[in-house]
Structures are given as structure tokens and as C-alpha cells.
Write a structure and sequence with these properties.
Helix content: over 70%
Shape: elongated
Largest sheet: 2 strands, antiparallel
Number of strands: 2
Number of domains: 1
Oligomer: single chain
Radius of gyration: 21 Å
């Protein structure tokens, strides 16, 4: 593991990671999201901004999971159709 320093909303955080490049990318994405929220909700402190960002990101994950499940169902149907076409041919 490597130690990586990232900056989120002007605060530096030292993290240990197996993938420094990805960790920095994730930190930049979080920083960007927090800056957007900070502009919109200027009265919120750092920790409330973090909580709001976490809630939004978790909602995004739930939505992506639903889409993934639907795509997997569609893929399964297509595979069944292909299997029928192959067995009929």
C-alpha cells in the first residue's frame, strides 16, 4: 500500500491505497461534487456537505444498480433468444 495525500474542499487528507491514481481520481470527483454543493448550499458546514454528498452518491449507486439489474435481465433474454435461434438452425 502507498500513502497518498488528497485535497477535498481545501482540507488535506492522507490515505493509504493500493491504487493511488484511482484514489486521486475519486478524491477529485468528491471535491468537485462538494464544491458544487457548497455553491448551492453556502450555509452548510463541511460535515453537512459531506453527508449531503454521501446521500446523493448512494442514491446514484442505487439507481445504477437498478439499471444494471435491468440490463442483466435484457441480456439474459437476448441470450435465450440466441440460444433458441442456434438450436432451431
Amino acid at each position: 500500500m502507498q500513502s497518498v495525500e488528497v485535497e477535498i474542499l481545501g482540507r488535506k487528507h492522507r490515505l493509504r491505497t493500493d491504487d493511488p491514481v484511482q484514489t486521486r481520481a475519486v478524491a477529485r470527483a468528491i471535491d468537485s461534487r462538494l464544491k458544487e454543493l457548497q455553491e448551492r448550499y453556502q450555509m452548510l458546514d463541511y460535515y453537512k456537505l459531506l453527508l449531503l454528498a454521501i446521500l446523493q452518491m448512494q442514491n446514484d449507486i442505487f439507481e445504477l444498480d437498478k439499471k444494471n439489474q435491468n440490463l442483466n435481465k435484457e441480456l439474459e433474454k437476448l441470450n435465450q433468444m440466441i440460444g433458441q435461434i442456434i438450436s432451431d438452425g
